[in-house]
């Protein structure tokens, strides 16, 4: 019997290629292509007065220089507003090359094409742009004040405004036994994949067709956008994602200016052109995320049950909103987590600033929402003097309430209905894993040693596998090898492996005989993309359905050939055989030969399929409802998202003197339904947690008041090294299968990062004894908070006699925090 | 097509993975660009071009170097080992094998720099402790894995090296 692959920690089939240096990333392609480089704005907000290229024209190797006035037709029009949500009040998008004005540092103004990148950058250096500098709008508060406007015709800098309301939340808050108000803040971070963006385009003048390679999370999206911009028929444009060196969301945004310009110029010049983003370009011209200011009003009873929740969110969307309002919509809906909020009202304003655009970064607005909710849960617990977990448990949706309808609309325009999950069960696992009950003993012990420790907990629910659809194409070749394709792309998630695992089980073929291709419009033209933890759910199920159809066809054809009932057949190790009588069999490859009636035999095997050998002479060789070939293409399109969930706990130690924050333990309980490959799922969690640690403790975009990004390099943007992440992430799984899809799976890709800001805030607050309201938090910020706390400027927690009889903490702290 | 004769170039000879290679490069050509674009060995990746991320690490005369911080002309006469030179034909280098077994890579972009770095560390210290394994990779950035499986890969690579040499000794003894 073939070993079941679904659920096994199978080693990845893509690894050998990548480990031997044989990966093909964007900049590995097009070795003979011309290189593009860009002159980008050094100002956050300015009018372009003049562009002088005179001095650049003499550079040897220069091929072309383009500014906005060179861009014809749609190429020169604003880039598309991809997700035109009705709550967008004033949607503004940038141009491929800036026209008249620039709205953030890094915005492209001039495109240079030259013999190589060194020369292209020489040319850029000799182009002089004259600006009239305008007052920049930087940060949520400045945008909200609207003393200056990013876009002169957008009042209040408001790009979008949305209210969702279930019940009368303000009234419920006011009439509740207890009320609290929280002012919260989360700063900007970004995806920062190790490979930046990049585009390489070839125009085939004979065929009048365009091939685009781009480091993207959606090849079908780029293809459609570029075809429209260049006024080409869709079937004259091919788009391929080669190996992609990480995405984390930034590469789902499209078309980037370069994705339009490089193909346009390649066609115009009839030359291959490539642009590879450098690291500084990535910081100042790709996307960021996370920046929000939040105000929470909550009303609750003596048990900590939330009766009313009234949330206002001010979201920094940067200079433009090409990706619509997806991030704040997700924040405002996923904020609810595993809880029943009673009455809920959420109102957000999405605001323009003169900074890099904001589009989804792994978690996509959820980390901020979870932060708001979990800060609130901790505040309630503290107010009531209750255990933080007990307050959460009092608010949990119970397993028997599934499916649970929040009566709100999710990011996909579909109802927010949780399909599955056992939140009390997950919390029980987490408490056991981290030793929640024993922590006070540990705290005491640590305190006796002069150490300051704290524990935090945070829960989330994540809508995954959003639609509209994905497809799967499965072909059995006459060699018996199986070729699988799906349209969405891969950025390291192991899709080649997990999709092969699904097919291996359906078709009874060994993993090594299955070849999976992703993100190539030549193989699959219908697709959406890789985001929202949707690849396994969407393409996994689509491929599973297609593979099952192929299996059914294989058994039918083999049944006819072997003169047995298809129901009596099984496929083991690539051989179709009669159950219990394995000698009556034929290889799957032979079935593939038989599936395609031939006139011409091209080899010995194919002689078996010529019309003199197979088929009933009285019937058409291919039946009316059939197609030649042992293959199928099918699609999976769910009515709504499936909701994964998880709970994290972290134990931190804060240095009493330096305020350094050390992670002692990090525990994760995770429910993504049925797991295809636990090794890969755990790898996703590890990576997500590491990004979460970065986002909570180290990473931020340091914009100054002029809109200059001060830390646009790996020297200054503190991405975690191995020394900053937990030694070991302790993981326990709870598998509640999704009832919504055939494989019972829920997405897993983003999970690790979602509760990080919340869980670290919870733990640091617990260690310090005063409230944490702004994340990320650095040692110097924590130190400053301690000073303010000591000066009585920020209140102590009421509920716990937390810190701090250590020498460096002033005595009043202890008094203030002791009830 | 315009040509580039204006920029002076220099002939260089290097040994890359044991094979003598020549190139004609401008003085400012980075070793990383020379390997990738002149010699077309694209296994070495460029993640930051300012020497922080370590993705472009190659061995120059056996020592790990950031090839984005070195000019190609400075490598004249050097022995360079890139990720393409680690495996012995179809047999993966112990570090490569360990990364596969331990799921030490996801997108694979930073991986070549880790592999070259770790292989040099293990040459110097074949039996690293966990702390030494962490130290070995503490200068390389990875955005996908969270490093836990990379540290495990370092330790596993040392183990594979020992296993292979035990087998070799065993076979030699027969």
Overall shape of chain A: globular
Rg estimate of chain A, integer Å: 29 Å
In what order do the strands lie side by side in the largest sheet of chain A?
3-5-1-12-9-10-11
Largest sheet of chain B: 5 strands, mixed
The sequence of SSEs of chain B as H and E is: EEHEEEHHHH
Instruction: Tell me the strand order in the biggest sheet of chain B.
Output: 2-1-5-3-4
What helical percentage do the residues of chain A reach? 25-40%
Measured by DSSP, the beta-strand proportion of chain B falls in 15-25%
CATH class descriptor name of the largest domain in chain B: Mainly Alpha
- Name the pair of protein chains with the most residues at their interface, and give those residue counts: A-B, 64 and 62 residues
- Which structural class is indicated by helix and strand composition of chain B? alpha+beta
The count of β-strands of chain A is 29
What would CATH call the architecture of the largest domain in chain A? 2-Layer Sandwich
Q: Give the overall average pLDDT of chain B.
A: 95
Task: Give the CATH architecture of the largest domain in chain B.
Answer: Orthogonal Bundle
Query: pLDDT average of chain A, as an integer?
Result: 94
CATH superfamily of the largest domain in chain B: [2Fe-2S]-binding domain
Low-confidence stretches of chain B are: 1-5
The number of helical segments of chain B is 5
Query: What is the number of independent domains of chain B?
Result: 2
Structure notes:
The complex is a heterodimer of chains A (819) and B (174). Chain A folds into three domains: 33-134 and 191-285, Aldehyde oxidase/xanthine dehydrogenase, a/b hammerhead (Aldehyde Oxidoreductase, domain 3, Alpha-Beta Complex); 292-466 and 639-817, 2-Layer Sandwich (Aldehyde Oxidoreductase, domain 4); 468-636, 2-Layer Sandwich (Aldehyde Oxidoreductase, domain 4). Helices cover 27% and strands 24% of the residues of chain A. Chain A has 19 helices and 29 strands. In chain A, the strands form seven sheets. Chain A has a seven-stranded mixed β-sheet, sandwiched between helices. Chain A has a six-stranded mixed β-sheet with strand order 7-15-14-13-8-29, with helices on both faces. In chain A, strands 18-26-27-28 form a four-stranded mixed β-sheet, with helices on both faces. In chain A, a hairpin with a 5-residue loop joins β13 and β14 (306-318). In chain A, α9 runs parallel beside α17 (756-768). The model of chain A is unreliable at 801-819 (pLDDT under 50). Chain B is built from five helices and five strands, in the order ββαβββαααα. In chain B, strands 2-1-5-3-4 form a five-stranded mixed β-sheet, with helices on both faces. Chain B is globular, with a radius of gyration of 17 Å. At the A-B interface, α1 and α16 of A face α2, α3 and α5 of B.
């Amino acid at each position: 019997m073939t070993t079941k692959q679904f659920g096994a920690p199978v080693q990845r089939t893509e690894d050998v290629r990548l480990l031997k240096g044989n990966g093909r990333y964007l900049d590995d392609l097009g070795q003979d292509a011309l290189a593009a480089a860009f002159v980008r704005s050094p100002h956050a907000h300015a009018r372009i007065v003049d562009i002088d290229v005179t001095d650049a024209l003499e550079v040897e190797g220069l091929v072309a220089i383009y500014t906005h006035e060179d861009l014809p037709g749609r190429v020169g029009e604003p880039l598309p507003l991809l997700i035109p949500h009705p709550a967008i009040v004033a949607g503004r998008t940038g141009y491929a090359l800036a026209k008249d004005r620039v709205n953030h540092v890094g915005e492209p103004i001039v495109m240079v094409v030259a013999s190589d990148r060194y020369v292209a950058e020489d040319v850029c250096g000799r182009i002089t742009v004259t600006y009239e500098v305008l007052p920049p709008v930087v940060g949520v508060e400045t945008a909200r004040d609207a003393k200056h406007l990013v876009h002169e015709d957008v009042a209040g800098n408001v790009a979008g405004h949305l209210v969702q309301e279930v019940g009368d939340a303000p009234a419920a808050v006011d009439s509740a036994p207890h009320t609290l108000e929280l002012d919260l803040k989360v700063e900007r971070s970004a995806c920062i994949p190790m490979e930046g963006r990049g585009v390489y385009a070839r125009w085939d003048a004979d065929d009048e067709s365009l091939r685009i390679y781009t480091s993207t999370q959606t090849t079908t999206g780029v293809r459609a956008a570029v075809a429209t911009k260049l006024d080409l028929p869709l079937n004259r444009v091919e788009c391929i994602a080669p190996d992609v060196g990480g995405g984390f969301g930034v590469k789902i945004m499209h078309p980037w200016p370069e994705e339009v310009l490089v193909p346009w110029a390649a066609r115009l010049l009839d030359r291959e052109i490539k642009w590879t983003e450098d690291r500084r370009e990535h910081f100042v011209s790709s996307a960021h995320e996370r920046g929000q200011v939040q105000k929470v009003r909550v009303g609750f009873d003596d048990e900590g049950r939330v009766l009313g929740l009234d949330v206002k969110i001010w979201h920094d969307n940067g200079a433009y909103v090409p990706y619509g309002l997806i991030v704040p919509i997700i924040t405002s809906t996923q904020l609810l987590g595993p809880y029943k909020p009673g009455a809920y009202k959420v109102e957000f304003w999405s605001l323009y600033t003169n900074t890099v655009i904001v589009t989804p970064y792994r978690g996509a607005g959820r980390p901020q929402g979870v932060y708001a909710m979990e800060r609130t849960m901790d505040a309630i617990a503290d107010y009531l003097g209750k255990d933080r977990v007990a307050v959460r448990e009092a608010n949990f949706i119970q397993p028997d309430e599934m499916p649970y309808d929040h009566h709100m609309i999710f990011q996909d325009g579909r109802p927010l209905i949780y399909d599955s999950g056992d939140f009390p069960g997950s919390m029980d696992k987490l408490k056991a894993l981290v030793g929640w009950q024993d922590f006070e003993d540990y705290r005491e012990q640590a305190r006796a040693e002069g150490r300051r420790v704290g524990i935090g907990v945070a829960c989330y629910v994540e809508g995954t596998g959003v639609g509209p659809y994905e497809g799967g194409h499965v072909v059995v070749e006459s060699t018996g090898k199986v070729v699988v394709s799906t349209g969405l792309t891969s950025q390291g998630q192991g899709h080649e492996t997990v999709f092969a695992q699904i097919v291996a089980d359906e078709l009874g073929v060994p993993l090594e005989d299955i070849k999976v291709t992703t993100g190539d419009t030549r193989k699959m033209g219908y697709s959406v993309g890789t985001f929202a933890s949707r690849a396994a759910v969407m393409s996994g199920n689509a491929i599973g359905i297609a593979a099952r159809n192929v299996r059914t066809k294989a058994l039918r054809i083999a049944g006819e050939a072997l003169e047995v009932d298809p129901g009596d057949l099984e496929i083991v190790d690539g051989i179709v055989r009669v159950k219990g009588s394995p000698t009556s069999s034929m290889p799957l490859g032979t079935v593939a030969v038989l599936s395609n009636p031939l006139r011409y035999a091209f080899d010995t095997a194919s002689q078996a399929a010529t019309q003199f050998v197979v088929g009933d002479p009285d019937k058409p060789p291919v039946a009316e409802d059939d197609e030649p070939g042992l293959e199928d293409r099918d699609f999976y399109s769910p009515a709504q998202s499936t909701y994964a969930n998880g709970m994290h706990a972290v134990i931190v130690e804060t240095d009493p003197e330096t305020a350094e924050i050390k992670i002692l333990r990090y525990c994760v309980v995770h429910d993504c339904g049925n797991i295809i490959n636990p090794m890969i799922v755990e790898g996703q969690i590890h990576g997500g947690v590491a990004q979460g640690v970065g986002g909570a403790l180290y990473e931020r975009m340091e914009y100054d008041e002029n809109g200059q990004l001060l830390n646009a390099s790996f020297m200054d943007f503190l991405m975690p090294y191995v020394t900053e992440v937990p030694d070991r992430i302790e993981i326990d799984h709870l598998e509640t299968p999704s009832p919504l899809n055939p494989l019972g799976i829920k997405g897993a890709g983003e999970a690790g990062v979602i509760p990080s800001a919340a869980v670290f805030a919870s733990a640091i607050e617990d260690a310090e004894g005063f409230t944490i309201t702004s994340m990320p938090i650095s040692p110097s910020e924590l130190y400053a908070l301690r000073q303010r706390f000591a000066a009585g400027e920020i209140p102590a927690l009421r509920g716990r006699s937390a810190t701090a009889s250590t020498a460096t903490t002033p005595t009043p702290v202890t008094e203030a925090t002791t009830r | 097509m315009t040509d580039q004769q204006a920029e002076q170039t220099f002939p260089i000879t290097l040994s890359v993975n044991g094979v003598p290679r020549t190139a004609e490069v401008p003085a400012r050509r980075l070793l990383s660009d020379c390997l990738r674009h002149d010699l077309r060995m694209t296994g070495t990746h460029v993640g930051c071009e300012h020497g922080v991320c370590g993705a472009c690490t190659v061995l120059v005369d056996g020592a790990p170097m950031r090839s984005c911080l070195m000019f190609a002309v400075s490598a004249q006469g050097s022995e360079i080992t890139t990720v393409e030179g680690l495996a012995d034909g179809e047999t993966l280098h112990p570090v490569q094998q360990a990364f596969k077994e331990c799921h030490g890579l996801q997108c694979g972009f930073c991986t070549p720099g880790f592999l070259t770095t770790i292989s040099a560390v293990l040459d110097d210290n074949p039996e690293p402790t966990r702390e030494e394994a962490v130290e070995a990779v503490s200068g390389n950035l990875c955005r996908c894995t969270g490093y836990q499986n990379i540290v495990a890969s370092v330790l596993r690579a040392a183990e594979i090296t020992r296993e292979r040499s035990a087998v070799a000794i065993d076979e030699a003894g027969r």
